[in-house]
């Protein structure tokens, strides 16, 4: 199904969009701070393909594509990839990584208003998006609109990849100061599963639980990521509160037996919620 997709007719919704996270400020550091092993992602795609969810030569949509981490491997496998992100800087990086190689078309755009015709996409592969999007339910419905009947909606998550002790401490301090639930969008995986069910999708099962890896996190490096504000769920804290929590976290780290050189061992794994659009 390679080729140029037609643009939809002008018009559509005119109401203002709710807040969404724009990663422009950290675009240059995004890939280094989100380190999903490429080999494990490729094994997950093998399983999706074996289950008939990613047909050969299909057109795959990557909403919230960022720098193309999730979808460039799909383009390398022969799929036509179309990706959207609200951040021009992230799109610039994705385009640079794609050119002059695989068939990947990365565009600035919002998942809640996609410039694509109905039923024009063979599969949707999405990761780390809905928690960052206000009115994320509208985005989910929009993805189902552009997905062809029978097409797969694949939501990939990295479980346990970011829950190091420094991050947990920082989050607990923020919650204690009354700044919990800082994500502008989806709060839990269950919300997505429930919405997809309400939309009449058909569940599909692809086991990924065995696709895990070991990750070592040095406390001092984890703190530096907070200093540099790399995590979107905390961007909305008032500056004074952020600085106070950052300083308190530094003191907590200094009080550990090995201080900033303390190491946390994490064991993340991949998981996926997969459904098909009704035929």
Question: Mind explaining what this structure looks like?
Answer:
The protein is an alpha/beta fold. The chain has a domain at 24-161 and 183-214 and 269-276: Rossmann fold, CATH 3.40.50.150. The chain contains 9 helices and 9 strands. A 7-stranded mixed beta sheet has the order 3-2-1-4-5-9-6, sandwiched between helices. A two-stranded antiparallel sheet has the order 7-8. Helix 5 links the parallel strand 4 and strand 5. Helix 6 packs across helix 9 and helix 8 (219-227) runs antiparallel to helix 9.
Q: What percent of residues adopt helix (DSSP H or I)?
A: 25-40%
Q: What profile does the largest beta sheet have?
A: 7 strands, mixed
Distance between the termini: 18 Å
Number of β-strand runs = 9
Main structural class: alpha/beta
CATH fold field value of the domain at 24-161 and 183-214 and 269-276: Rossmann fold
Radius of gyration: 19 Å
- Give me the CATH architecture of the domain at 24-161 and 183-214 and 269-276, please: 3-Layer(aba) Sandwich
Compact overview of the structure:
The chain is an alpha/beta fold and 279 residues long. It has helices at residues 30-33, 38-50, 72-76, 88-98, 136-146, 165-176, 189-198, 219-227, 239-254; strands at residues 59-63, 80-85, 104-108, 121-127, 147-159, 202-204, 215-218, 263-266, 269-276.
């Amino acid at each position: 199904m390679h080729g140029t997709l037609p643009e939809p007719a002008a018009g559509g919704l005119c109401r203002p969009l709710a807040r969404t996270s724009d990663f422009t400020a950290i675009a240059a550091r995004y890939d280094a701070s989100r380190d999903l092993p490429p080999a494990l992602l490729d094994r997950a795609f093998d399983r999706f393909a074996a289950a008939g969810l990613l047909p050969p030569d299909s057109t795959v949509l990557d909403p919230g594509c960022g720098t193309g981490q999730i979808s460039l491997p799909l383009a390398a496998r022969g799929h036509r990839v179309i990706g959207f992100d609200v951040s021009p800087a992230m799109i610039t990086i994705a385009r640079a990584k794609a050119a002059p190689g695989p068939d990947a078309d990365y565009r600035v755009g919002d998942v809640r208003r996609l410039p694509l015709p109905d039923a024009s996409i063979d599969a949707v592969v999405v990761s780390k998006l809905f928690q960052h999007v206000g009115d994320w339910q509208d985005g989910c419905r929009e993805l189902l609109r552009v997905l062809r009947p029978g097409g797969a909606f694949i939501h990939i998550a990295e479980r346990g990849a970011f829950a190091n002790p420094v991050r947990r401490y920082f989050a607990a301090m923020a919650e204690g100061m009354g700044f919990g639930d800082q994500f502008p969008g989806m709060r839990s995986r269950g919300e997505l599963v429930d919405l997809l069910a309400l939309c009449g999708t058909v569940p599909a099962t692809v086991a990924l639980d065995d696709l895990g890896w070991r990750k070592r996190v040095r406390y001092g490096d984890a703190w530096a990521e907070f200093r540099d504000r790399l995590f979107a769920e905390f961007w909305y804290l008032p500056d004074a509160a952020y600085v106070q929590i950052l300083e308190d976290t530094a003191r907590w780290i200094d009080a550990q037996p090995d201080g900033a050189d303390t190491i946390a061992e994490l064991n993340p794994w991949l998981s996926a919620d997969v459904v098909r659009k009704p035929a």
